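To make this tangible, we now present a fold written out as tokens:
***
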Amino acid sequence: MKAGGGRGVGGIISFRPEDGSRTAQENNAICLACHERGDRTYWNGSTHETRGLMCTNCHTIMKQVSRKFQLQTAFTPDTCYQCHKDRRAQNYFSSHMPLREGKITCSDCHNPHGTATEAMLRENSVNDNCYKCHAEKRGPFLWEHNPVRENCLNCHDPHGSTKEAMLKVQRPKLCAECHGFDHGTNLLGPTNSRFVFNKGCGNCHVKIHGSNHPAGAFFMR
């Protein structure tokens, strides 16, 4: 008001993305004056910050659309889907995380404001992120399956898949990426072959994530 008020005089700050009079960094600095702690600690230098996103790309200021966090959309994942359209498609695959059912949301695994880890994960590693829900896969086990201990993403696609259990490749071909077979002929033939149908390695190797049985070296017990 002291400057005279009105647009162009310097009295009104517009957060509209089409307003080129202020940079994204300048607009974000206003929000970060109060909201720089907690989950926003790693905002500076994060993937979203370096790509020029503004707080108002995801959040509303003057109206309430979502139940909490003042998001742009009522359904939380839709805010992320504004940019991550490939993840929206994956969530509609037959095997998917329960995002569209409302049981979890993107921010349960990722911190959109930045982290010190890869892919803005909330935990120190991919596996630690998965263990928050899948604690039975953590171990320690007497017999460890090395690809499992290394990274869950060796076998699974966490955002959705057309294969069972969000596997990246259908069994037994997934297992054949590491293992040679001597279980019979045509094990790795066409998936519609009568020699392959229903021959999932997990039919016998049921403890594929690790076993504590003294005779579990082949993950069958």
